[in-house]
Amino acid sequence: MQRIILVGKPNSGKSLLFNQLTGLRQKVANFPGVTVELKSGQFDEFELIDFPGTYSLNSLSRDEQIAIEKLNIAVHDEHTSMVVCVLDATRLERSLVFGLQAQRLAEENGKSVVFVLNMIDEVQKHGFEIDVDGLQQALGAPVFALSAKKLIGVAEFKKALPALVKQGKTSHHDIPEAREKVIERARNISKQYGIQADVVLKSQNRIDRFLLHNVLGGVAFLAVMFLLFQSIFTWATPLMDGVEWCITEFAHWLTALIGPGMISDFLNDAVFGGVGAFLVFVPQIMVLTFIIGLLEDSGYLARAALICHKPLSYFGLSGRSFIPYLSGFACAIPGIMAARTIESPRKRLITMMTIPLMSCSARLPVYALLVAVLIPEDATLFGIFDFRGAAFFGLYLFGIIVALIVSLLLNRFTRNQSDEMDMPFILELPSYRVPHWKPLFHRVLNSGKYFIRRAAPVIFIISLCLWVLGYFPQGAGLQGSFLGQIGHIIEPIFEPMGLDWRYGVAIIMSFLAREVFVGALGTLFGMAGADDNIAGLAANIQADGLTLGAGLGLLLFYVVALQCVATVATLRAETGKGSIAWGLMAAYGVLAYIIAVVTFQLVS
Ligand SMILES: Nc1nc2c(ncn2[C@@H]2O[C@H](COP(=O)(O)OP(=O)(O)OP(=O)(O)O)[C@@H](O)[C@H]2O)c(=O)[nH]1
Ligand SMILES: [Mg+2]
After folding, report:
1. Which domains does the chain have, with CATH numbers?
2. Phi–psi pair at 81, nearest 5 degrees
3. Which of 7, 228, 532, 588 could be bridged to 562 by S-S, CB 3.0 to 4.6 A?
4. Ligand 1 centroid – CA 47 distance (Å)
5. What PANTHER family does this protein's entry cite (predicted)?
6. Strands 80-88 and 39-43
């Protein structure tokens, strides 16, 4: 199959164009360095490959190096027929530095080149027009002006591309090799055909004067972060109540239909109690995805990274660590992958090792459940903020603080002379944009679907096993059941945390996946006879008398413990060392246990 490769400056809209051409849904966001791996899809009869963005052929960061290596391989490959180079029309000069280098590389190897002048809608919005024919002449290759977002010119491009690929017309232009010369030519071309950069920058600067201000910028940053975590709780509550109501009503209806007996016990305890208790929290994960998506699409993230650079560098991290950290709030795995954009190998390693301390969405159900148990519903902070929301913020903050302390220690232990010379922190600030709503809503829906698909089967199987072990021998009650007997053996481990064996079983099971904690507890409490309040697990736990110290200790345990096999596998792949990955799992496990025990002893 003939291959088309899609290259260009970071944040120029390659992935969005890739999605429009292939119908796939690769991640698109408004900051440089979103795509860190090659992604492949099909367009027409061709294979289309989306590359990570690169500023030039001599780059330092890991993701760009990978892209450059792969680009070199691709242009030598006989299957590659065309290089499509995406230019950001609002930042023509910067796009052309890599664009011209890529054109030279492609033409040297006999591949044809086409330029896409993307973001043309933003140029038009400012009342400008670009002389596409002139630009075409200057570059000596076809140029398609389009907007991958507003779909201007995309249909024409789709129509013309196959013929151009088949034609395979290659030409040779005299493009200089030296970087300075390339920069000079890029500047000349953009001066002649591009729009004046300050037109676009003006409105951006006005906002940045506030958001990047020494003091106000910091305050705005903290406010944004606080609102983020507050809203996870407050926005999601009505949705969660809705889901809970539906599950409870359905459970009552179905069990009434079936009548009492073993099947009805099973449905109540394992299915509605276990899987149902977990489903209640899915809206929260969707709200979190929505808010992170808003931040990513608006262009604020790059500013936040800039604000955080100085404070983060005290801990041996870089401003570039911020975006991987924030991705870690959704899930550690893409967060660890995103760390590839960090230039310094040591900072990259420290960032990867501490990302698992960012509270990922799998912890949300556990937090929400225990916070609901420990804090009364109508408690407010200063009469405005929901106390439960503030507690959420506190938990996330605790994870961040532990991550910073661990980074500081790792930085002390691994520092050596050679990397004392820090590279300057350079990050391109993207334009502020209105979020692209449709993909954002798709992403939100997908996050819910993905979460259910990933966790529900595991929770179902575990609930089933727990239920069988807890139901038999029949009539012995939960305490006398097989599960109870096993539970009593492990109980001494959890006693110092102030927890009985039922929590112990749920904690051990949650090393498979954190969400299992909620499902397992749901099943266990369901079997203990509290089944008139099926999905209302929080109320059941409250009635059972979980103490504040033990509950708080348990929460902090979940903040710190690394209970995710997939994360360990990713850490192993990205660091190249299994010992680091498994070592971290053990170390965070022990630390979490100690924190929980100390909290229980202090608070009780
Ligand atoms: N206004 C406008 N925005 C666009 C257009 N194309 C892409 N964008 C936005 O530009 C941002 C970057 O898009 P991506 O497709 O992620 O860019 P990329 O080139 O793949 O970036 P990297 O993966 O970081 O190299 C996103 O916020 C897109 O919504 C366009 O034609 N017009
Ligand atoms: Mg991309």
Report:
1. 3-200 (3.40.50.300), 220-235+285-415 (no CATH), 239-278+438-603 (no CATH)
2. -105, -30
3. 588
4. 21
5. FE(2+) TRANSPORTER FEOB, FERROUS IRON TRANSPORT PROTEIN B
6. unpaired
Q: What is the pTM of this model?
A: 0.89
pLDDT tens digit string along 60-85? 777 888 899 999 999 999 999 999 99
Structural tokens at position 319: 């401003």
Query: Which atom number of ligand 1 is nearest to the Cα of residue 54?
Result: 25
CA atoms of 273 and 248, how far apart (whole Å): 10
Q: Is 153 close to ligand 1, i.e. is its CB under 6 Å away? A: no
Residue 240 has pLDDT above 90, yes or no: no
DSSP output for 427-456: -PPPPP----HHHHHHHHHHHHHHHHHHHH
Residue whose Cα lies nearest atom 10 of ligand 1: it is 13
The identity of residue 477, as a single letter, is: G
User: Would you say the CB of residue 10 lies under 6 angstroms from ligand 1?
Assistant: yes
Nearest to 509 by CA among 490, 528, 535: 490
Among all ligands shown, which has an atom nearest to the Cα of 28? 1
CA dist 324 and 351 (Å) reads 8
Does ligand 1 lie within 6 Å of residue 399's CB atom? no
* Cβ-Cβ contacts under 8 Å for 105 (sequence gap 6 or more): 57, 71, 72, 75
Residue 203: phi and psi, rounded to 5, are -70, -35
CA torsion, ordered 23, 24, 30, 36, to nearest 10 deg: -140
Ligand 1 neighbour 91 (Cβ under 6 A): no
The whole-number pLDDT of residue 14 equals: 98
| Contact (CB, 8 A) for 500 and 208 | no
pLDDT at 423: 64
**496: preceding bond cis by omega (within 30 degrees):** no
pLDDT band at 46 (very low <50, low <70, confident <90, very high): very high
Report residue 532's pLDDT band, with 50, 70 and 90 as the boundaries. Answer: low
Question: Residues 479, 484, 489, CA angle at the centre, nearest 5°?
Answer: 125
Q: Ligand 2: distance of its center to the CA of 256 in Å?
A: 53
Name 477's Cβ contacts closer than 8 Å, sequence gap at least 6.
484
Q: With 60 as the cut, is the pLDDT of residue 419 above it?
A: no
Residue 337, amino acid: M
The pair of three-digit structure tokens given for residue 484, joined into one six-digit string = 């109870």
Give the span between the Cα atoms of 448 and 313, in whole angstroms.
Answer: 35
3-state secondary structure of 470: helix
Q: State mean pLDDT over 452-478.
A: 86
Of residues 421 and 355, more confidence is placed in 355
- Protein residue with least CA distance to atom 6, ligand 1: 13
Q: Find the 30 Cα to ligand 1 centroid distance in Å.
A: 6
Q: How far is the CA of 458 from the centre of ligand 2 (A)?
A: 32
Query: How many residues are recorded in the chain?
Result: 604
Query: Could you report the per-residue pLDDT of 369-401, keeping only the tens digit for each?
Result: 999 899 887 777 676 677 888 888 899 999 999
Atom of ligand 1 nearest to the CA of 50: 20
> pLDDT tens digits, residue range 103-115?
999 999 999 999 9
How far apart are the C-alpha atoms of 604 and 600, rounded to whole Å? 6
Question: How would you label 199-209 residue by residue, b for 16+ Cβ within 10 Å and e otherwise?
Answer: ebeeeeeeebe
Q: Provide mean pLDDT across the span 216-229.
A: 88
